[in-house]
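[step 3/7] inverse_fold.run input=structure_tokens len=81
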């Protein structure tokens, strides 16, 4: 297996999407990553397939993310939590 040393890192998934999503990378392979959703922002009427606690495989070709700290990933960056 390819060792990308991404497991255990928190990310903001698909930055710029209408619905903000944060997650924890649980596995990384040459095909893509497995991410467990830790926080979702308000949907504001937009639909999303993501729910907190779900795990999703995202192939590298469909993946955009950046690293965040665990607090931001678990609170969605909201200070009131």
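[step 3/7] decode complete -> sequence:
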């Amino acid at each position: 297996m390819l060792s990308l040393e991404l497991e255990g890192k928190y990310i903001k998934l698909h930055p710029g999407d209408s619905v903000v999503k944060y997650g924890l990378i649980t596995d990384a392979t040459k095909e893509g990553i497995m991410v467990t959703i830790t926080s979702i922002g308000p949907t504001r009427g937009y639909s999303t397939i993501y729910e907190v606690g779900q795990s999703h495989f995202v192939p590298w070709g469909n993946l955009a993310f950046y690293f965040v700290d665990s607090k931001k990933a678990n609170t969605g960056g909201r200070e009131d939590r």
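[step 4/7] annotate
The first strand starts at residue 10 and ends at 13.
Residues 71 and 77 are 7 Å apart (CA to CA).
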